[in-house]
Amino acid sequence: IRGPCERPGEDEERDKERVSGAGRVAGLREAEEGPDSDSDLETAGTPGSGELARDTLYLRSCRAHGVVPASCFLRQGNTPELNLRHRGLGPQGARALAPTLASIPYVKRLDLRDNGLRGAGAKALAGALSKTSSICDVDLSENQLGAAGAQALCAGLSGNQSVQKLWLAGNGLEEQAARYLAELLLAHTGLKFLDLSYNQLNEQAGETLAPALAENTGLTELNLSWNHLRGPGAVAFARALEANIFLKVLDVSHNGFGDPGASAVGEALKTNNVLEELNMSNNRISAAGAQSLGLGLRVNQTLRILVVTRNPVRTEGCFGLLKAVRDNPASALELLDVSDVQVNREFDDLAGSLRVTLPGLCIKTGARRAEPKKESPPGFRPSLSASVPK
């Protein structure tokens, strides 16, 4: 007997859902226990057979490696992104997942951020990634990969040109890992995007990566922010931009380039005709370094965005950058970001004139204008009553 609030056919729909759900669970259980016949082959072409085979393979692999299956994996469905971030998979979970990656050709993006994979987990995934041609975007950030994980991953990806985006932020990568990354940049011409931010790539790492960056023939976006590139390593890395003809977006913010690195970047901008976006914020660049950087802006014709915030460039440095843009009639600059620097009226006047000649240029400066201190008139002395509290 149908209840007063039920619609006609509602009970039939529930019965169908129960039957289909029971059939799916029974199918998974039967496949996991090992049927007498080749049921996986017999179910080919039936609705949901590919998803059933994928889940079955994953459950078997989890049982073999002694790990609890990730329920979110079974709920993913046939989506182009496999998102398992923050799931605590660990090395064993990565070993259980690796065999399944080859059975899901519809997945384009693999997100395993923050899973404690370490070097062993990276090695297991590298073997699987070297065999798949569908995954083009891999995020392994915050997994404590270290040099061992970087070595395994770079070796696995060197022979697979399908991966175009690779995220390795926050993995404790140091000087030794830079050698494997340099080999990847030379071998993997299909890689377009690489995120190495929040690591410990130091001066020696910069010298190691520089030749690979100069010869790389595919990378268009590189993020090296929040590392330790400084000294000769920063200079060598900056000089590599002179030879690179593919990189369009570079983020080296929160490093230690200093004035020598800024000067090297300025020299590179004189010949580089590809780079469009450059972020050099928080790099200990003084007014002198900013003026050296401006020498490149005087002739460069491709750079559209330049960010130099959180540097002690003062008004003199900002004025030097703006003068360089004014003296370059072919400048493509659309954004000059010095938003934390307090500028004076002379800078404002120059910026106002540039708004007429370059109406597409946006200049971000500090909220307050730095005005010269007013001198007290001769013979003026403040009264004691004003300074002594009552």
UniProtKB/TrEMBL annotation:
Residues 1-50, 367-390 are annotated as: Disordered. Gene3D superfamilies: Ribonuclease Inhibitor (3.80.10.10). It comes from the Eukaryota. This is Leucine rich repeat containing 74B. It comes from Oryctolagus cuniculus. The gene is LRRC74B.
